[in-house]
Amino acid sequence: MMSSHVSLESLCGSILRSNKNIQSVAVINNRGKVLEKIARPLFARQFPDHLNEFFCMSCVLQISMGRDFDENYGPINYHISERSNLIMITFPINENIIITTINKSISSITLSKKIIHIINDQIKLL
């Protein structure tokens, strides 16, 4: 269990360090429970924890519903949700979901592909 925690912590840190525009990274399970979370200080103050529970559940629902179409269209690599203040990108990884929040000043597709490479590299180390 501890090695899994360290691996998730390492994964989140690697993703956050990969680009200054990434504000937070979290890994949640298929019930919306946060397993690991890391955020830049200013971002952490702007988004209190009690709001995150509902947000995490909505991410789980979105990915879960999308999996219903995997047979026809293939699995989801990532999902981008652009809001007026920021962009959220979710990555389904086995039974878990990685949620990243990024500033709007960067190409979300380019960054998503970079993050997928980081995730795949980290999974190989597990």
Task: Give a quick precis of the structure.
By secondary structure, this protein is α+β, with helices and mostly antiparallel strands. It contains five helices and five strands; from the N terminus they run αββαααβββα. α1 runs antiparallel to α5 (108-125).
Written account of the structure:
- With 126 residues, this protein is of the alpha+beta class.
- The chain has one domain (2-125): Dynein light chain 2a, cytoplasmic (Beta-Lactamase, 2-Layer Sandwich).
- The protein is 50% helix and 25% strand.
- It is built from five helices and five strands.
- Strands 2-1-5-4-3 form a five-stranded antiparallel β-sheet, with helices on both faces.
- The mean pLDDT is 87.
Observed structural traits:
126 residues, alpha+beta, Beta-Lactamase, five-stranded antiparallel beta sheet, 5 helices
CATH topology: Beta-Lactamase
* N to C succession of SSEs: HEEHHHEEEH
Query: How large a portion of the residues is in β-strands, by DSSP E?
Result: 15-25%
CATH class: Alpha Beta
Most strands sheet: 5 strands, antiparallel
CATH architecture: 2-Layer Sandwich
**Given the C-alpha coordinates, what overall shape results?**
globular
Kindly state the mean pLDDT as a whole number?
Answer: 87
Radius of gyration: 14 Å
What's the name of the CATH homologous superfamily? Dynein light chain 2a, cytoplasmic
Report how far apart the termini are: 12 Å
Stretches with pLDDT under 50, minimum 5 residues: none
For the record, the count of structural domains works out to 1
Structural class: alpha+beta
Strand order of the largest sheet: 2-1-5-4-3
